Protein: Carbohydrate kinase PfkB domain-containing protein
Organism: Phalacrocorax carbo
Amino acid sequence: IQPSVQEALMEGRPVVALESTIITHGMAYPQNLSMARKVEETVTTNGAVPATVGILKGQIHVGLTDEELEFLASSKNVVKVSRRDLPFVLSQGLSGGTTVSGTMIAAHKAGIPVFVTGGIGGVHRGGENTLDVSADLTELGRTPVAVVSAGVKSILDIGRTLEYLETQGVCVAAFGESREFPAFFSRQSGFQAPYHVRDEEEAAELIASALELGLSSGVLIAVPCPQERAAPGQVIEGAIQQALSEARSKGITGKELTPFMLQKINELTGQSCRYFFFSSKKCQTDLALIQNNARVGSCIAVALSKLQKARRKGSLPWREDANPPQPVVIGGINVDFIAKAQNPVIL
């Protein structure tokens, strides 16, 4: 854990975890490095400490220095690391970027309750036959971290994704005045989130409740992208259907499907659907969305930190039947003396 992150955690200050596949498998260098720096700056500006998670030479890092960010951004042979990949990547001393799943694990072990990303994975279209379901969903079902994202990519089966999250026991809430579940660049997906929180205070209350209950599942806060950056849903949907048809005709499946789909939709619409494509206009659009998530997530982390501090303060008075607080000595020195009395009478 980077010292600045560790210090913030020890002091109870708000920390926001960030993934690194955006850096390693997203934009080309040096745009990816610039994006990572700007997102971390957004977190800092909004009162939280950024903790980008990455794998460097077989070791999980929670919080990266600028030199480490540049290493991941400029390296060619780095791995995309999810839960299943962690044992192998660590055992082989490899480097890589952590997915939503991989980042959630590291954040939870470090004690960071809030994690910001672009969009989570989901159930792929046709997933009822292929069983192509992102590990992000099962991770949300078993790791108690709040994930702030712009919903799921519109190339996925959003309805089945929400159903799967329900099965996993994940509390899903849209952020803002509407319960409409966002689809990354589109503010409307045609599906309603089970719940919605109007602002960062309500989101913090929701996360605090989940943590206090000791649930093993996470929370998903779905943030609609800024109105001025939103892509018309029907345009994207038409491109998706055309790209799916072409993928089927070419026999493209499995882990090759998403990159193909994103590239094709980008060609058909001129609009990047995630953070994979590199013209300046597209990068600006992607960055605006991720920065918006970082802003909202940081405000939630700040509100959660204040709430937890207030609750700890409110619980300080001890009941008469409670055990008294025990002193903790830090930095003490023990000196032992052994003595034998010459006189049998001990004075």
Summary: The chain has a mean pLDDT of 87. Residues 3-311 form a domain with the Indigoidine synthase fold fold (CATH 3.40.1790.10).
